[in-house]
Amino acid sequence: MTQPNLPSANAPVTAFAEWRDYFALLKPRVMTLVVFTAACAMIAAPGTIHPFLGFTAILCIAVAAGASGALNQWYEADIDALMKRTANRPLPAGKMEPHEALNFAIALSIGSVAIMGLAVNWVAAFWLAVSILFYVVVYTVWLKRRTPQNIVIGGAAGAFPVIVGWAAVTGDTSLLPWLLFAIIFLWTPPHFWALALFMEADYSKAGVPMLPVTHGLANTRKQILAYSALLVPVTIAPAVLGLTGWAYGGTAVVLGIIFMALAVKVSLSKATLAKDMAAEKQLFKFSLLYLACLFGALVADRLLLA
Fold first, then answer.
1. Residue 198 and residue 277 in contact, taking contact as beta carbons nearer than 8 Å
2. 138-144-148 Cα angle (round to 5)
3. C-alpha dihedral over 183, 214, 219, 185, to 10 degrees?
4. CA 292, CA 287: separation in Å to the nearest integer?
5. Closest CA to 165 of 66, 248, 57, 303
6. How far is the C-alpha of 138 from the C-alpha of 113, rounded, in Å?
7. Which residues of 62-85 are buried (b: 16+ CB within 10 A; e: fewer)?
């Protein structure tokens, strides 16, 4: 895997990198959601785990997610330099050398998987390694610059941590964690395409084949509605199958109705300028709350049934 060698990939490095720059490489906002869903899966899993081992597992998941983000930024420094949203990241802003970011990310990747295996179990470590490789190799290197389906297939990268969290407690996987995987997998396209709609100009400038760039705004809005229609029944499935109780099931139904209403609103939108895309921005913001509340309800359900 080699980094694209474009002249605009990085600005000249003018100073030594600070700890803030290394922290920014980890994509902390993305990491937070990954860690939260994985922690919820751990709590929902049957059985118990020693608090110290549970903390270790969460730390390994967080570090691995950060390592994936750092490898992503190392590889995409040229793209980041062309987009307003990412131009101030450490590499395009010239705050560190590319090899520093690469070495940092590789060390975190190997360390997180090794510690997960040695301290917790090797099933969780295996899925943790898969999550890193999927995000970096499949999504970042293979898909993102080549196909508008990058987000659809790449959504699995953000879904694997729930499998890791579950396996950390049980040492195996079962139907419920894979349903949780499916929820995040199907949630990812409407979440990111809502963002891509009002960031279309940036993606177009950077040459990233996101769906609004390749297939237009109207088609993207239809796809958001279609994936939302697939997502909501899957979120309710754990309750229907008797894998969760009423607390989770009721929450999934209410949240699903709101999510579908917002998706319909987006599908009916005719806005072409980012400043006019209120419906799209509303769906994007709610989608974050939606996933957090859904997994929070999973935890509440588990505690009520305990």
1. yes
2. 115
3. 0
4. 9
5. 57
6. 18
7. bbbbbbbbbbbbbbbbbbbbbbee
Q: CA 228 to CA 8: how far, in whole Å?
A: 37
Q: Nearest-CA neighbor of 109 among 75, 140, 68?
A: 68
Q: Is the separation of the CB atoms in 186 and 290 below 8 Å?
A: no
CA distance 284 to 262: 10
**CB burial string 41-51: b at 16+ within 10 A, e below:** bbbbbeeebee
**Which residues of the chain are modeled with pLDDT < 70?**
1-16, 306
**What is d(CA 81, CA 277) in angstroms, rounded to the nearest whole number?**
25
- Residue-level pLDDT at 240: 96
**Spatial separation of the C-alpha atoms in residues 107 and 124, rounded to whole Å:** 19
CA–CA distance from 48 to each of 52, 117, 167, 174, 260 (Å)?
A: 12, 18, 11, 16, 36
User: 33 by DSSP, 3-state: which?
Assistant: helix
Only one residue has tokens 């996933």, namely 291
What six digits make up the tokens of 166? Answer: 């579950």
Please write the tens of the pLDDT for every residue from 44-76. Answer: 999 899 999 999 999 999 999 999 999 999 998
Task: Decide: 27 and 62 in contact? Cβ < 8 Å.
Answer: no
Helix intervals (H) in 93-245:
98-115, 122-133, 150-170, 175-198, 200-206, 211-240
